[in-house]
Amino acid sequence: MKSxxxxxxxxxxxxxxAGCTKAAVQGRAPKPTAAEPAAAANPEPFTATVNVYGALxxxxxxxxxxxxxxxxxxxxxxxxxxxxxxxxxxxxxxxWDGQLWLSTPDGQGGAAAGKHDATxxxxxxxxxxxxxxxxxxxxxxxxxxxxxxxxxxxxxREAGVNVEEAFPFRIEGTSTRLDWHVINGxxxxxxxxxxxxxxKTAVRGSLTGTRVQILGFYSPKHHAIFTHHDxxxxxHVISSTPTVTGHVDHVDVDKGARLYLxxx
Length: 264
What we know:
The protein is 19% helix and 36% strand. The longest helix has 25 residues, at 2-26. By secondary structure, it is α+β, with helices and mostly antiparallel strands. Residues 1-40 have low confidence and may be disordered. The protein has one domain: CATH 3.30.1330.80. The protein is globular, with a radius of gyration of 29 Å.
C-alpha cells in the first residue's frame, strides 16, 4: 500500500512539474529558427549633406543680391550637384556632377545657356550637395506637377532617405510639359520686391515632349531659404535639344522617366 501511494505521489509531482514547464514556455517568446529569422531592426534613414549659401527671403524682400560664394572652385569637382542664381540676379546656375551650366538673358528676349569650364562669376543663392552614389527608380506612371512634392517625398522615404532634412534628387526622361525661367536682375525696377516683381522681368519659355535632365532639392524646412513657401522642392532643368537651362516653374514628367535619389 505504501509503495502504491508513493508511486501515485511521484506521478502527481511529475505531472505538476510538466504543467509548470509548459506555462513558462508559453509566457516566453520562442527563439527564432533558421526558417524564421528574427526581424532586423530598421536602419537609420540616410541624411544627405547639403550646403546653402544665401536665402530667398533676403533676395526677394531685402534686395540682397551680392555674391555669397565663388563658382570657380566647384568646377570639375566630381559628384557635386547644385543650383541657384548668379550674383545681381544675372541668371541661373546649375552644377551637374561638377559641370557648371549658366543661363543668362541675351538682351533680345531670350537666354543664352551653356556649359563653362572656367568662370569668375559668383552666386547670390546656391544649394549644393556631393553625391557619390545614386539609387534609381523607374517611373511606372506619369507624375503631374501638382503631385511632384508628394511623389518625391514618398519615393525617398521608401528608399531610406531622411525626408525630414534636405536632399538632392535627379529626374531624367521625357517631360510632357516643362515651363522654365531665367532671372533677369538688370530689368527689375529699383525697390521692387517679391516673387511676382522678379517674375515679371524674367526670361520665360516652355518645352513640350522633350527629353530633359532635372536637378532638384527637396526640403520641408527651407521655405523662403531655397524653396518658396508653397513647395518643398526647387528644381532646374538642362535640355540639350534645344539647349536650355533654367529654373523649373512647372513640369509634368512622363511615364518611363527615372528618378535618382542619393545612396549612402
